[in-house]
């Protein structure tokens, strides 16, 4: 098909293009291009007298070659020469070449700037426009410095013609973006606002873009523009389509300008002036009304242009978020679009509705469309639209509909496009965590996720479920049961093996009572997957096995066989080999007590933002709210990243064997020191492995049999560290004296709760110091080992801990503190202190530990309560039903002997955990005494030196009301009250 | 704002490319990827798609695709109609524009585009005014 080039046709160019089009192969095309490039190069080099026409022709050829995907590294000089041509066409092609094939670093830039300067002073406005367009397209720093001053004059001068004004606006905008500091302040900023009133809509359009950008930077300076923009908008939306002539597009008056004005208004909050606000709302209502009118044309251009304005108006309504009626109208309008036959409209409606869902005024209105959105998720043929449906479901999800939405998302996930699966998995995981129906549902949901889309379940997701299970004692038994069942599937995803391995390792004992999930069965089930798994998972399973050795001594032999297996002992993977050797050694050398200490259950993870959420935000930075972005900027090291790295439960067992080896007689691996430091420097999350750091020979106390960490409230010290987390770094440096440490009073209640039923753990932690405690009690005597760990690399000097018994406690308790051998704690070192306590009479307050030391010249003071509570001196008592009821009746005669509390459960009611808690508290549980099997009956004796107090307990849970009735009867009023207080916090 | 405008034929060959943001390293492979993604889409799919950290808005005219990359502050429908307005303006100037018109008159095609979009923002949408400078130029050369 012969095509004649319009205007001054260039035969050579036409021939070249035809040649290229006729090339049969990529190679032939490349050959032809190389030939042409060589030709042009030689022409440029050799023939100095090349005329403008030829230069133009070659430049066009180079452009064409550039579009074919080749880099052009010459010809710039020739293009620059064209700039100084007097012929408009040649000048134009020169500018075109430079604008398309920009090369801002080039030494040519000075020549270009000179040419632009000349043209800016030219008489012909077309030349000025070319120069301005070039600046707008390139806008380098050098240009900004050399040319910015001239531009504002052009914009506000009365003599400038409209086309130049338009170009000048966008040119200045470009320079402002490149280097804002070169744009001169001055009264032009006020006058530029008045361009919104310009007669010429092209000028208004360009000016609006400029003002929009400037106003984002300094909103105050351009506030008067709000009023001008509103009145301009009002004139446009109320005009008839004939009024604006050429600026009416398919019966829609100035759609692009309307969109821009609505965008500009989104820089500002709703106007305060009621009249202005009324006028704006009128505009918005008019736009919403027009959407309901019958279309003036059947053409898609008409509806697109109309709806472009409508969507922008809705954006403004959402941005203001103050007019409930407009918000609801917007929502209804979008609701109509959800079922529109135009895919584009459905897509955009889903997208906008997602924003509406976050407004309190329209959240409920959005929820009404849930069924439509779910249908869209199932029936839309376009994955982009389905993706928006997922986003919207995510956005509209709250407590009321979480169960349904998560179920729908899960069922969609089975067939979902691969491209959106990972994001969906994250979203389901977040929703399940955010709006849990209960935690068993949460665990089920996550396990389903792994079952359905295991490949797309990122590490963050399975780390998180483990964190939550560890922190929530009420699901641990259930979690162990369901992972055990899930693992029985013939084909099960490796992620399931990881979760299963970890959870059974921690809580397998909770289901070991059942024959079908006896220790041996659990072990064989896990081990049947072992050979199919990757090395990191095998490593995790090895950790599970050593935990099993501790939990189930009866199968120690089989477990050791696995560790001893040559496949593991001589594994090529150094990590596996090391684990096998160290675990084997540990299980052989260490006594059961040491093993139990080393492999004690994981303490709760500090509460913090879900690492999954962080991951989602990272994945979609554009949808994350600005706050988060800001936060990320503030701290040079975004906390979220730290979290996900340090949060990994797998990281903790991995480091577990290291400190162990230091205690065991085997030669200590070299890396132990560095590992330990790493653990410390990892920040608050490293709190987890600290229990393992105590290479204490002391046997674990009576509470050691308690394998469940019953508290989901984070430890007190973790409260402190999470509070610090967002600016962790800053705090590290300005760490003042002990001020940030929790005072004794502040942490008293947490102490009561957390340590009431366990004896070991981290008592305190801040940026400098970590204090761990191990305690054992017998009768009225107790021994506490305190471990002071210096987390810094500098020594603590004059380190003096003292223990005191304030007030009445002095007469109720004897405390003996062994002074420390040293008064300096070296960087990274740990010192131990033993405290003996003797209970003389019943008591309420705990002894206070105060620590003073000097760290890099400043004195630090920390006051803490020691975890010594009355129930520590409790001994369980066994008795039969008859003697129980005899005593029960005896203990009701005098006032104060009985204390009854009816209270709402603070934790989900679960029989197993209640049992564990009561046992941990020190009661002997009497089964079969109460006719109702749900109730608990227990007995114990408080052993003080002066007296022994018998205590009886009855705890009646009411599942339906989620309430408890607690009845305590003892022979001492004060004991009754104190024990009731302590127990209340546990349930 | 607009990041770029691409004009591509059905075979995936770029016929016109204007970038308003230049840092695109490895322009060619990114461009190919974008083109491949758009060409692979079916007619019943919507005209917008997320691409990396921005959005693509595209429209097909017989064998020619217009692909515009925009940031997340742009109004998709407005961009869709901007494309149509560009096509109508080309149509008006070239009289039933086709791929070859663009190829043989690359400079004109760029010039028209320049009058409509500059620095990633819309300058002028009035077709008569857009074509004014180029008509002046044509007259001057005749």
Summarize the helices and strands and which ones pair or pack.
The complex is a heterodimer of chains A (987) and B (142).
Chain A: H1 11-22, H2 26-46, H3 52-67, H4 76-83, H5 88-100, H6 109-120, H7 125-138, H8 141-147, H9 150-156, H10 162-178, H11 188-193, H12 201-217, H13 224-238, E1 248-249, E2 252-253, H14 255-265, H15 274-292, H16 300-320, H17 324-337, H18 343-356, H19 363-367, H20 370-379, H21 383-396, H22 402-413, H23 418-434, H24 439-453, H25 459-471, H26 473-487, H27 494-507, H28 519-530, H29 535-551, H30 556-564, H31 566-569, H32 574-589, H33 592-598, H34 611-619, H35 626-634, H36 639-646, H37 651-655, H38 657-663, H39 672-681, H40 690-693, H41 716-724, H42 728-734, H43 744-756, E3 761-765, E4 769-778, E5 781-790, E6 796-804, H44 809-812, E7 813-817, E8 830-839, E9 848-855, E10 858-865, E11 874-876, H45 881-890, E12 898-904, H46 911-921, E13 924-925, E14 936-943, E15 948-958, E16 963-970, H47 973-984
Antiparallel strand pairs in A: 1-2, 3-4, 4-5, 5-8, 6-9, 7-8, 9-10, 11-14, 12-16, 13-14, 14-15, 15-16
Chain B: E1 2-9, E2 14-19, H1 27-39, E3 48-51, E4 54-61, E5 64-70, H2 76-94, H3 99-104, H4 106-116, E6 117-118, E7 121-122, H5 127-141
Antiparallel strand pairs in B: 1-2, 1-5, 3-4, 4-5, 6-7
Domain Clathrin adaptor alpha/beta/gamma-adaptin appendage Ig-like subdomain (chain A): 753-867
Biased composition (Polar residues) (chain A): 635-650
Keywords (chain A): Cell membrane, Coated pit, Endocytosis, Membrane, Protein transport, Transport
């Amino acid at each position: 098909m012969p095509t004649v080039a319009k205007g001054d046709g260039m035969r050579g160019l036409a021939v070249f293009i035809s040649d290229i089009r006729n090339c049969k192969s990529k190679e032939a095309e490349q050959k032809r291009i190389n030939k042409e490039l060589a030709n042009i190069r030689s022409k440029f080099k050799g023939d100095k007298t090349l005329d403008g026409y030829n230069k133009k022709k070659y430049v066009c050829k180079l452009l064409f070659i550039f579009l074919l995907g080749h880099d052009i590294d010459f010809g710039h000089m020739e293009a620059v020469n064209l700039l100084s041509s007097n012929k408009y066409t040649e000048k134009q092609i020169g500018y075109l070449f430079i604008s398309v094939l920009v090369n801002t670093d080039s030494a040519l830039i000075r020549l270009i700037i000179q040419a632009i300067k000349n043209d800016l002073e030219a008489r012909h406005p077309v030349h000025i426009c070319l120069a301005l367009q070039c600046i707008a397209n390139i806008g380098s720093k050098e240009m900004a410095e050399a040319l910015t001053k001239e531009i504002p004059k052009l914009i506000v001068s009365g003599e400038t013609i409209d086309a130049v004004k338009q170009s000048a606006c966008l040119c200045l905008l470009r320079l402002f973006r490149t280097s804002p500091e070169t744009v001169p302040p001055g009264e032009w900023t006020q006058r530029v606002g008045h361009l919104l009133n310009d007669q010429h809509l092209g000028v208004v359009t360009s000016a609006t873009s400029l003002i929009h950008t400037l106003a984002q930077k300094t909103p105050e300076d351009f506030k008067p523009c709000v009023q001008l923009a509103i009145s301009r908008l009002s004139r446009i939306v109320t005009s008839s389509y004939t009024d604006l002539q050429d600026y009416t597009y398919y019966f829609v008056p100035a759609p692009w300008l309307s969109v821009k004005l609505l965008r500009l208004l989104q820089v500002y909050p709703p106007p305060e002036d009621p009249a202005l606000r009324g006028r704006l709302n009128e505009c918005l209502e008019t736009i919403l009304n027009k959407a309901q009118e019958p279309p003036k044309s059947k053409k898609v251009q008409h509806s697109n242009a109309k709806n472009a304005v409508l969507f922008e108006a809705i954006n403004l309504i959402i941005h203001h978020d103050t007019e409930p009626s407009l918000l609801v109208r917007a929502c209804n309008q979008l609701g109509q679009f959800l079922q529109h036959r135009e895919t584009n409209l459905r897509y955009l409606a889903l997208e906008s509705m997602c924003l509406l869902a976050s407004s309190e005024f329209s959240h409920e209105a959005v929820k009404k469309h849930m069924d439509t959105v779910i249908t869209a998720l199932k029936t839309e043929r376009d994955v982009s639209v389905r993706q928006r449906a997922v986003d919207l479901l995510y956005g509209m999800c709250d407590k009321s509909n979480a169960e349904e939405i998560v179920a729908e998302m899960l069922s969609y996930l089975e067939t979902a496009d691969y491209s959106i699966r990972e994001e969906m998995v994250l979203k389901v995981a977040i929703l399940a965590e955010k709006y849990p129906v209960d935690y068993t549902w949460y665990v089920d949901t996550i396990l389903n996720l792994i079952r359905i889309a295991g490949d797309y379940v990122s590490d963050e997701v399975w780390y998180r479920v483990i964190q939550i299970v560890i922190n929530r004692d009420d699901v641990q038994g259930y979690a162990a049961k369901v992972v055990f069942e899930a693992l029985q599937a013939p084909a099960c995803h490796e992620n399931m093996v990881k979760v299963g391995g970890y959870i059974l390792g921690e809580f397998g004992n909770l289901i070991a009572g059942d024959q079908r999930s006896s220790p041996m069965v659990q072990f064989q089930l896990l081990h049947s997957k072992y050979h199919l798994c990757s090395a990191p998972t095998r490593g995790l399973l090895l950790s599970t096995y050593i935990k099993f050795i501790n939990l189930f001594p009866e199968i120690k032999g089989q477990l050791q066989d696995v560790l001893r297996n040559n496949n593991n002992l001589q594994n090529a993977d150094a990590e596996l080999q090391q684990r096998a050797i160290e675990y084997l050694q540990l299980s052989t050398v260490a006594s059961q007590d040491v093993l139990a200490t080393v492999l004690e259950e994981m303490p709760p993870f500090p509460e913090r933002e879900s690492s999954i959420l962080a991951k989602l935000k990272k994945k979609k930075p554009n949808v994350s709210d600005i706050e988060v972005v800001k936060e990320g900027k503030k701290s040079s090291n975004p906390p979220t990243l730290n979290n996900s790295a340090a949060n990994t439960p797998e990281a903790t067992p991995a480091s577990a064997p290291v400190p162990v080896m230091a205690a065991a007689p085997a030669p200590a691996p070299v890396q132990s020191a560095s590992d330990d430091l790493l653990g410390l420097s990892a920040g608050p999350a490293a709190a987890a492995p600290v229990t393992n750091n105590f290479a204490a020979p002391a046997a674990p106390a009576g509470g050691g049999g308690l394998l469940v960490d019953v508290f989901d409230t984070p430890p007190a010290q973790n409260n402190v560290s999470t509070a610090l987390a967002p600016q962790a770094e800053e705090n590290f440096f300005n760490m003042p004296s002990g001020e940030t440490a929790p005072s004794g009073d502040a942490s008293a209640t947490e102490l009561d709760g957390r340590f009431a039923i366990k004896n070991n753990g981290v008592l305190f932690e801040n940026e400098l110091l970590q204090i761990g405690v191990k305690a054992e009690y017998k009768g009225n005597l107790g021994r506490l080992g305190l471990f002071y760990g210096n987390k810094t690399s500098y020594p603590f000097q004059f380190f003096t801990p003292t223990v005191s018994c304030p007030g009445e406690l002095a007469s109720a308790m004897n405390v003996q503190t062994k002074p420390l051998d040293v008064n300096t704690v070296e960087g990274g070192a740990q010192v131990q202190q033993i405290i003996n306590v003797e209970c003389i009479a019943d008591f309420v307050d705990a002894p206070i530990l105060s620590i003073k030391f000097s760290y890099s010249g400043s004195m630090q003071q920390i006051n803490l309560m020691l975890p010594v509570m009355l129930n520590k001196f409790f001994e369980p008592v066994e008795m039969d039903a008859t003697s129980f009821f005899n005593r029960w009746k005896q203990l009701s005669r005098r006032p104060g002997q009985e204390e009854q509390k009816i209270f709402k459960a603070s934790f989900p009611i679960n029989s197993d955990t209640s049992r564990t808690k009561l046992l941990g508290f020190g009661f002997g549980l009497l089964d079969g005494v109460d006719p109702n099997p749900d109730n608990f009956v227990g007995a114990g004796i408080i052993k003080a030196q002066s007296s022994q107090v018998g205590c009886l307990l009855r705890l009646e849970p009411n599942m339906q009301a989620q309430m408890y009735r607690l009845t305590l009867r003892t022979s001492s009023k004060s004991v009754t009250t104190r024990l009731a207080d302590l127990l209340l916090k546990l349930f | 704002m607009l990041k770029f405008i691409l004009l591509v034929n059905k075979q995936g060959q770029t016929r016109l490319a204007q970038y308003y943001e230049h840092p695109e390293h490895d322009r060619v492979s990114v461009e190919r990827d974008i083109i491949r993604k758009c060409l692979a889409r079916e007619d019943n799919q919507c005209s917008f798609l997320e691409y990396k950290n921005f959005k693509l808005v595209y429209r097909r005219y017989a064998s020619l695709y217009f692909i515009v990359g925009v940031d997340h502050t742009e109004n998709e429908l407005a961009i869709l109609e901007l494309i149509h307005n560009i096509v109508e303006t080309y149509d008006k100037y070239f009289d039933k524009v086709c791929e070859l018109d663009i190829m043989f008159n690359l400079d004109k095609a760029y010039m028209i585009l320049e009058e409509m979009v500059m620095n990633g923002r819309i300058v002028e949408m009035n077709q008569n005014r857009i074509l004014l400078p180029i008509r002046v130029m044509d007259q001057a050369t005749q």
